[in-house]
Amino acid sequence: MGVIIIGLLLGGTYALMAVGLQLQYGVARIMNLASGETLVCGAFGAVWFFTAYKLSPLYALIGVVPLAFVANWVIYRVMILPLVRRAKSQGQLEVDSILATFGLSFMAIGILLAMFGGEFLAYSYLATPFVILGQPYALNRIVAFLCAAVLCAGLYIWLHHTRAGLTLRAVSVNPSAAGLVGINVARTSSFAFALGGAVSASGGALLSMFLNFDASLGVIFTLKALVIVIMGGVGDIRGAIIASFILGLTETAVATYLDPGLTLAAAYMLFIVILLIRPEGLFGKRSS
Amino acid sequence: MPDGSPDAAVLRIEGVTKRFGGLVAVDNMSFALSKNEVLGLIGPNGSGKTTMLNMISGALKPTSGTILLHGKDISTAPASEIAVRGIARTFQIVRMLPSLTVLENVAAGGVFGHSRRWGRELDNYARDLLQRVGLRGADDASVAALTYIDQKRVELARALASDPEVVLLDEWLAGLNPTELRTGIALIEQIRADNRTIVIVEHVMDAIRSLCDRCVVMNSGMKIAEGTPKSVLADAEVIRAYLGDADA
Amino acid sequence: MSGAAEHRTAPPMQSLRAALVLSRREQINLIVAVLMFGAAALLPVLGKTYWLSIGISVAMFTVLATSWTLFSGPTNYIALSTAAFFGIGMYVVGAGLPYMPFPALVVVAAVAGALLAAVVGLATLRISGVYFVIFTLGLAELVRQIVAWAQHVMGTSSGLYVLLSISDSAMYWLLLGLAATVYLVGWFIGRSRLGFALRIIGNDEVVAVHCGINTARAKVILFVISCTFASITGALVAPRWSYVEPSIAFSPFLSFEVVIMALLGGVHRLWGPLVGVIPFTLLWEFISAKFPAQTTILLGACFLLIVYFIPRGVVGLLEDLVRGHVGGSGSVRGLFQRGKTDNA
């Protein structure tokens, strides 16, 4: 039972990084291999705010989110747009954007290493027990989960009940048709990419409340986000959220009953299962 | 006159439907293809003809219904398997292999498909085919240098390179001037004379009239008529489908 | 066959039996290649240990980058998993050396690598390139975690002592021989049906499928061949470090460097990666000596420079110069046509 609750708490917090990647891949159609680094930057930002200013990570979000937004906007404009213009096909764009973001992720790791060194960074915030159904759980996990839930819910409402959100969803379904009805696809993609980065960074800030981070963990988070997005089906935020819970539960189960060092293996196991059974994901549309 | 009776049927389409989400592109189509016949699949734009062809060649899978090749169900078979079983096709928009020479483009069809050749044999066979479609001497040219019509010929040669039993031609005669049209029709007649079976999707009515033994007319995904070209083209509903109510 | 007719026939037209009959151009290429390998083999004789050590790195990365290109060149699928297979090779040797002779372990490493590649390939190559890239991204880390867990369960430490001494010269010649094998294999594939299938797939996968090509199987076979070489390489170089650790064996930098070198050289020619390996290895020696703290950033920057400004690699640039214009009339020559310019 405890495993289930921890798994759910973890999964819910993972949802943010998955939604972030979902926005970048589903709308802007960029497979961003550096999204894990964005998350780590968000985490480091929270650490820094806490250790330097004794600010709760929840306040740190106020600083981290806009910064991440702007940074990702710039990245899209400077790095990704030239590739979009140069690409002769979606396939080529995918290859190019994978390579470019891969290179970017290495640079980001290098910069983080230079700024923060190679050790694990952690801080203790709300590390007090909170009792649910007779079992104690770390309060920080619960708070992180609640924040993530609020943010995800907000995003979902925004995507499905505002005009701006509709624009994003239109571009994600069919960019050329969206262009035909007057949507500025390039600007929408930039916005989606920036928003995705901001969401990932916020996920990192929240995760930092109860996980230790070092500069090289980005890859693992990128991978988990990717597995979640694929599991949930590209193009539907609900899929990403449900898949996040599945991953969180699986990971916690594996860590508890098998070995905490096998969490990545758990993610891969899910990945293989999805690939073999339903490659388009839970909510995805099977391409003919 | 082949009548599509069971023993003569090469291909049987039975109750095939294709849905794309809410859109029904092909709706409960059934027809049969007899050995060595030329079947015309006609209908106004958007009636589902190319979708039907795509399902026969394996590029798409039917949502329901079956497609039988010599009695074997190929509805869910992958396109590569269907090619090996002897169904070859051309595409509505020509698909060349840009970094291969003309000869290699043709040869591509003859290595892995219904009949497999390699080496000198493939070389000679491909050159032969190029000659037959009227492209003698272009063997080592780059496909980018060819006119669209010539590219179509290359694609036809590529389809024939695998020695297919069934050839699917998707608007292969589109965009030809009268002379080219005559040559094109003669080519298709030659293919039939080789004892092959042909399905052509076309809008060029002259070609339909001179080539086809039978026609199946589609409109909005459904079959609205079947019979000789003469009879279907005189059918009131067919005329209505093409020209609208005013002219029916 | 007269010389003229032979010259007109492109490699895919020749059957395997005639594969050993070479056109004039191919004869010249072969002689040049033999001479180059012969010259390279003389390096240990010169007696300069520093240069020999660089030579070993160059040879190792040549094998890795070229076998990477064998797969990723024609298919355009970016495999980020070199370190996974390299590490497996290393660990097979490290774990097995007390029990089996070294040559046998190299074979075991090859088989292990081939099996893993087959599993990964069958799972991901039927679907789309993106899934493949993602899968390979974390593969090295995954294998590392599993190896660490297995050792934890078995009670051994994760570092292994490799107590086998192989002289630098011997290692160099082994790697050189392996490089020659990679080139031979690549050359044979290029003239085979598989090579032809891959060129077709690389041009238009829809057409390939309708020509009867089982595209997934072709890609898997190629991927297995490519990864097997990586595993063999890992096994061969294991004795170079007397102590093998997961962070060395499965280092993400390795996968990254291999991709950079291949891209820098150019992945559309079999000899392209070599052109990337040599300058990059030398550049890297320089950078890691002068700027040890900034290596990661510089690595990333180099990578980006290549992706943005020389996407077809140095070889691509050279070809554009030779042909006199940029962009090359849209024809990306097949991977295995070695330097032919007589086709349009």
Task: Give a structural overview.
The complex is a heterotrimer of chains A (288), B (248) and C (344). Chain A has helices at residues 2-27, 35-53, 57-86, 90-116, 139-161, 163-173, 175-180, 185-207, 218-232, 237-257, 263-277, and strands spanning 129-132, 135-138. With 288 residues, chain A is mainly alpha-helical. Chain A has a single domain (2-277), classed as ABC transporter involved in vitamin B12 uptake, BtuC (Orthogonal Bundle), CATH 1.10.3470. The termini of chain A are far apart. The mean pLDDT of chain A is 85. Chain B has 248 residues and is an alpha/beta fold. Chain B has helices spanning 49-57, 79-84, 102-111, 119-132, 148-160, 178-193, 205-211, 229-234, 236-243; strands spanning 9-20, 23-34, 38-42, 64-69, 72-73, 87-89, 166-170, 197-201, 214-219, 222-227. Chain B has a 6-stranded mixed beta sheet, with helices on both faces. Chain B has a 4-stranded antiparallel beta sheet with strand order 2-1-4-5, covered by helices on one side. In chain B, a hairpin with a 2-residue loop joins strand 1 and strand 2 (23-34). The model of chain B has no long low-confidence stretch (mean pLDDT 89). Chain C is mainly α and 344 residues long. Chain C has one domain (42-330): ABC transporter involved in vitamin B12 uptake, BtuC (Orthogonal Bundle), CATH 1.10.3470. A two-stranded antiparallel ribbon of chain C has the order 1-2. In chain C, helix 3 (49-75) packs antiparallel against helix 10 (215-237). The two termini of chain C are 23 Å apart. The relative contact order of chain C is 0.16. Chains in contact: A-B, A-C, B-C.
